[in-house]
């Protein structure tokens, strides 16, 4: 997106609480990946319209997105999955600070190994994928069976710094590899006959897939 338009749109994003500002500052200082402002505000607005009662998040990190979702949708319950032990500890601390322990539950381990534990909580109205980019297809394919009839799956970073649209590969081999995997996921996503998907060019690219 044109930077001037991006700045203009972000100027209208509501001010976050001091708690969320602190989490955003921590994420920047410690290079913890969290959703970009335009991306998370767009997702939260769609979720406000959808009003999911139960959300599955794949990729907790420090708990920022889970806490933002819980704050935006007052009666939702969130199950969130995380592999990294250090981030799990930070997320638990942040969830406790926000008094959200009764609404956000962390399941520890690789999301690809946690299906049975997640399924024990029942079905989900929304699933948010924001974890290992190379595993997006597996995450989506594995957990879509737990989605309710009118549920939505939200996937972040599907434009991956714009690299998915570049014909020439990045000089950075790691970025180029990740971009190729995201591009493959996007193609796979739009081939799924049981979902209708769109990619919204906000943040780092947000895919919204509605079950049909």
Question: Which helices and strands appear, and what pairs or packs with what?
Answer:
Layout: H1 3-10, H2 18-29, H3 37-50, E1 54-58, H4 64-72, E2 77-82, H5 85-97, E3 104-108, H6 115-119, E4 124-129, H7 136-143, E5 147-156, H8 173-189, E6 195-200, E7 206-211
Parallel strand pairs: 1-2, 1-4, 2-3, 4-5
Antiparallel strand pairs: 5-7, 6-7
Kindly summarize this structure in a few lines.
The chain is of the alpha/beta class and 212 residues long.
How would you describe the overall organization of this protein?
The protein has 212 residues and is an alpha/beta fold. It has a single domain (3-211), classed as Rossmann fold (3-Layer(aba) Sandwich), CATH 3.40.50.150. It is built from eight helices and seven strands. It has helices at residues 3-10, 18-29, 37-50, 64-72, 85-97, 115-119, 136-143, 173-189; strands spanning 54-58, 77-82, 104-108, 124-129, 147-156, 195-200, 206-211. The chain has a seven-stranded mixed β-sheet, sandwiched between helices. Strand 1, helix 4 (64-72) and strand 2 form a beta-alpha-beta unit. Helix 3 packs across helix 4 (64-72). The chain is globular and about 45 Å long. The model has no long low-confidence stretch (mean pLDDT 95).
The gyration radius over C-alpha positions equals 16 Å
User: Which sequence of SSEs, written as H and E, runs from N to C?
Assistant: HHHEHEHEHEHEHEE
CATH class: Alpha Beta
Spatial separation of the terminal alpha carbons: 30 Å
Question: Any idea what the CATH architecture is?
Answer: 3-Layer(aba) Sandwich
Strand content: 15-25%
Number of domains: 1
General form: globular
Mean pLDDT: 95
User: What is the CATH topology?
Assistant: Rossmann fold
* Tally of separate helices: 8
